[in-house]
Amino acid sequence: MKLYVGNLPYSTTEDQLRETFNAYGEVESVSLITDRYTGESKGFGFVEMPNNAEADQAIKALNETSYQGRTIKVNQARPRAGGGRPARRAF
Fold first, then answer.
1. I need a labelling partner for 47 at 20 to 30 A (CA). Which of 8, 9, 13, 38 fits?
2. Rounded CA gap, 74 and 46, in Å?
């Protein structure tokens, strides 16, 4: 299950996030979203856990809790709606 993790401190690293979620089960991947121009964190990311029961446990345990001084949001990631820019027309 892919989890959305929001309102993260900008200083959070992928290793720190992996360590936090490892307490609830196996973590397949972690990705923090960064600004494409500055490379700085946007304050959210995604954690993928192969076991849905463990992922649910992580959501229940971590959602709305204090993480490095900020109240984080953790929930099941939703697919992007609409997906990006409309296609350009070629003439």
1. 38
2. 9
Does any domain span residue 83?
A: no
CATH number for the domain harbouring residue 34: 3.30.70.330
Q: What distance in Å separates the CA atoms of residue 76 and residue 55, rounded to the nearest whole number?
A: 8
Q: How many domains does the chain have?
A: 1
**86 domain-assigned:** no
pLDDT in tens, 61-86: 999 999 999 999 999 999 877 656 66
Please state the separation of Cα 31 from the chain's center in Å. Answer: 7
> pLDDT, tens digit, for every residue of 24-46?
999 999 999 999 999 999 999 99
d(Cα 6, Cα 74) in Å, to the nearest integer? Answer: 7
Identify the CA nearest to 20 among candidates 37, 8, 36, 10. Answer: 8
Return the structure tokens found at 8: 């993260």
